[in-house]
Specification:
Blueprint (H helix, E strand, L loop, with lengths): L6 H8 L6 E3 L2 E7 L3 H18 L4 E5 L2 E6 L9 H16 L3 E3 L3
Antiparallel strand pairs: 1-2, 2-4, 2-5, 3-4
């Protein structure tokens, strides 16, 4: 089982994750894709990565906007797995020309 990261570790690692923020015991981000098919491709690409990692995000898709919530439920908080998946999501979003936006 992965260990829950400390507040300091989370803050330090979020500095390298543009668009991601901590909301209680989760990491949250939202991306706007150029069009609906691009948003669906982003979700599909991340789904393959998440399945390989055996670590699955909560995803909300609304037209061109996707919202991502990461937490390691079995550990009860944010672990390194969440940070690694956030980086992978950010990379996939950038390659699909999606832009980060306020995740609220």
């Amino acid at each position: 089982m992965s260990r829950v990261l400390t507040d300091e570790e989370i803050t330090r690692q979020l500095a390298d994750l543009s668009g991601w923020q901590r909301v209680e015991a989760t990491l949250v981000a939202a991306y706007t894709s150029p069009d609906f098919p691009s948003a669906v491709r982003l979700v599909d690409e991340v789904a393959a990565v998440a399945e390989h990692m055996q670590h699955h995000p909560d995803i909300d898709i609304r037209w061109t906007r996707t919202r991502w919530v990461l937490s390691t439920h079995s550990a009860g908080g944010i672990t390194q797995l969440d940070v690694e998946l956030a980086h992978r999501i950010a990379e996939a979003a950038a390659s699909g020309r999606a832009t980060a936006e306020e995740a609220s």
